[in-house]
Amino acid sequence: MTNTIDDLEKADVILVTGSNTTENHPVISSYIKRAVSYLGKKLIVIDPRKIKLTEFSDIYLQPTLGTDVAWINGLMNVIISEGLADEAFIAERTNGYEDLKKAVEKFTPEYVEGITGIPADDIISTARMYAGAEKGSIVYCMGITQHISGTDNVKSLANLAMLCGNMGIEGGGVNPLRGQNNVQGACDMGGLPNVFTGYQKVIDPDAVKKMEDAWGVEGLSDKNGITVTQMLPKAHEGDIKALYIIGENPMVSDPDLNHAEDCLKHLDFLLVQDIFLTETAKLADVVLPAKCFAEKDGTFSNTERRVQRIRAAVDGPGDVRDDWDITCEIGTRMGFEMKYDNASDIFDEIARVTPSYGGLDFDRIEETGLHWPCPTKEHPGTPVLHIGKFTSGKGTFHAIEFVPPAELPDDDYPLYLTTGRVLYQYHTGTMTRKTDDINERAPESFVELCAEDADKYGLANGELVEVSSRRGTIKVRARVCDMTKSGTVFIPFHFAEAAANMLTNAALDPVSQIPELKVCAVKLTKVA
């Protein structure tokens, strides 16, 4: 997030899109609901499903799946044509504005209505509300990123924020909500194929030299690695022989699961390190048991970039070990000694080689975490990014054209499918589905559809339905409600025995390599 969670209550208008916040981030949703209910803030919700947060919204727009660039360009078309843009901010702090103006010129409200299904008048009123706010915050999640146009979607939201001068101010910003508790920290630590810690590029000779000196080695690679969505096909092709998976369950979370399983089975060696025997671990040659978060010391970096201490509350069962300890032991046995006494030693090394973490240590964050960047011991941390200037100097507007999803409904598969989470289960169910009380609340998968589509396919609430795509078929219960519009269905992805990702499309965003998990084409068949 460019801003803090607390900042949501300082915004005049909050625009939430691609985030079922009340179910996926219930604590953060409480800030949004409080801002609206008790502080008089305005809320815009833009989502293909009529999620709980719409009950608190001043404006709710329900676009067709995969049309985010179109409606964002439509908002900017209205803002520019009506003279609502922050011209002073644009002139002082941005580049590329003329190209943006040309790109959005054709995205009139009427044109956008034809693509998205959002009424033209609603595009106009939404643009006026967001642009008319002194401080506007944009909140988004994986409903924006998990598309072949995910990078374009994020850039478009940044365009919108800059257009209205909503960057570098309290109550503003572009604020992605991370999907799990330490996703931000994993990225910060170099858990991406093209960076070291703190987003230092592996193709930068200075960064490579610094890491070589810190670790006492020579010959570190200066080439970008590959993403997990590229690894599995390469395993199938034989280019990758072995895979080491830590705390990930791709046999439930990856798209096109039949193909994903086939890829994993092509490996010569699969090593899985996890806290439970997951669906992926069952395919492994070796499984290494690790401690869970409550059994170890270390840090998490949360969605607002706050680096926080975690501490062991209980001992781990049996002979489980810390993740870092397991990895260090493997590295040592492979010929490079990785020796640390504790998590604090590791964090001190992180601070030495990572400019944005340079001022942090366990003592400084013992009581309260700090936001990076925090480059020196005297620095107080940075709750709000981009105050006064952007990291690169000026912000760049990107002229972006609308690209439809990789797979659209047709005569054979006439419905859109989108996927997501429910409140009571968590991600692939590795932890939550082992809890009886939770399973009473959310025991099985379902397909959510509107009454019009239920009548069309002769389905009643609770009946068993076969849902098929070009990649697979699952059987789930029908849940008839008013959350989706006609032509769109929703399935949660937590349930391995009826995995939504048997159906989803593995088409990738060309930049981020994220799969298009949020939209594909399916058909429904009533089970006799």
Question: Can you put this structure into words, describing what you see?
Answer:
With 528 residues, this protein is α/β, with parallel strands linked by helices. The chain folds into 3 domains: 172 residues, Dimethylsulfoxide Reductase, domain 2 (3-Layer(aba) Sandwich), CATH 3.40.228; 125 residues, Rossmann fold (3-Layer(aba) Sandwich), CATH 3.40.50; 112 residues, Beta Barrel (Barwin-like endoglucanases). Helices cover 30% and strands 16% of the residues. Strands 15-17-16-19-14-18 form a 6-stranded mixed sheet. Strands 3-2-1-5-6 form a 5-stranded parallel sheet, with helices on both faces. A hairpin with a 4-residue loop joins strand 16 and strand 17. The chain starts with 12 loop residues before the first strand and ends with a strand.
